[in-house]
Amino acid sequence: MTDRTVNVAPSRTVFIGSGAGFAGDRFDAALPVVATLKNHSGPKYLIYEVMGERTLAIAQQLKRENPGQGYSPWLDRYLPQVLEQCVAHGIRIVANFGNANPQAAATRTHEIAAGLGIGHLRVAIVEGDDLLAYTEPGRLSKYPAIEGTDTDGRELHAANAYLGAQPVAQALSHDPHIVLVGRTTDAALVLGPLIHEFQWRTDDYSLLAAGTMAGHLLECGGQVSGGYFADPGYKDVDNLHELGFPIAEITADGDVVITKADHTGGRVDRATVTEQLLYEMHDPGEYLTPDVTLDISACEVQQIATDRVRVSGAIGRPPPATLKVTLSVDGGWLGEAEISYAGLNALPRAQLAAHTVRKRIALLGMNEPCRVEIIGTGSVHDDDTSSKAGDLNAAASGEYRVRAAVRSASKANAQQLADEILALYCCGPAAGGGVRQSVTAQVSTASILVERDWVEAHTSTRLVME
Amino acid sequence: MKVTLPLHAIAHSRAGDKGNRSNLSLIAYQPAVYPYLLEQITEAKVLQLFAHKGASRVVRYRLDKLHALNFVIDNVLEGGVNDGLGLDGHGKTLSSLLLGLTIAVPDHLARHGENLSDEF
Prior knowledge:
By secondary structure, chain A is α+β, with helices and mostly antiparallel strands. Helix content of chain A is 28%, strand content 27%.
């Protein structure tokens, strides 16, 4: 029997900071994170999570039209400002800038490096999440959808599996400066480096659980460190304009401390960390990932110093035998438009405008479901039929905005509804103004579960040369 | 003596989404409030709050060590971010609707968010 505890080196700490938690996150948030990581000794990482289902489907289409496209447009926004410092200070970057095309992202990264005068940049990529690269769409439509739209008989624009942390760890074994992935779980961006640094085994479930939990806490950037949290007078956050993004400090035995970049706004405490721990969590006893089934139901969140929180008690069990795959299909068109009414008797005028638009929808015989609502009357909490609109007792005078929306397979119909709001300028109640309208192509998605062996047989990592 | 006040005064919440399903955390500012959340903020009460949006089922999970509850609400997003017609397809604002529910707690537990209240 081998005793694994004997040869374990003194517990090292890995430092992992977040540079972005969604596509569109504050563009310069990573700078204080890099400045803080620079001062730490030990393995240091900076992660970017910038993928969404919608952007992935669009990226797949771009890639089909041009093999050099389909990587994240955010690569050019985020990477140039940190690349030089990260290389100079040994901070490895792990990011899903790959989107639909990690190879193209790597090529673009080399271009950026060359432009900055950085030579010999080592870029590793992970491929294999794109099922359409190695399977017929017809095979995928045989799987029942566990959530989302009915994709049967519709053209698939994208089919991407959520890969786990193992391929990320494998990519790191090429000793790169940067790892670019497409679709993985968000937590894999954190767990991958931990597996690589600590050589955690695939059945070290309690350690994998701790690392996954750390990843879950970091995956939305500032949402764990005071972003998306402030409620003035109830729970206050200082200096949101320079919100500090989080840094996780994790040891080989799975100790997890969450803190944030030095000299920044925001806060890291029990309340901010608990909100993020439960974010997008369904059954807290069963958070399924390709690496481990995470159970946070017995987790504890402990403040150990100012802006330092220890999170413990994550339990791990074996992962499921399947991987989640997101299928994307054409979602038709969303037509939207709005118009404002303000001042005395504004609400009755807005109500007349909404009534007029509903009459027009009936007159034109539009069969698609439409939503016509009045912003300012609690509409965002209301339903598509505005059944609660009377409950708020909104004042007759004030500022209200009438909004109409429709989803249609027909672009013309989507535009038609938007134009009915526009026509209120001359055909509607008095003094409406500020019309804005948009008609945008939509993506609908569904999730299926596929055998992991099949995807893993097609998953690979490699260094991309300049 | 007990006072009745909005959840907003004594607990905080964040919404997350997956498809047409929302999860809403409900976290007590003070551990002593947690038993009152358990007692009064039931699955049935939350289902009723979101019934007009089509909510079909609510499952409530307990996180005793975090003095928090997690509500998972099926079919509440009217199609969600990819298929809904509302402005907030993610249902991000639904946490604020949850915090409008009222709760009765002993007056010494009344608060104004994280801060001591002199209103109650």
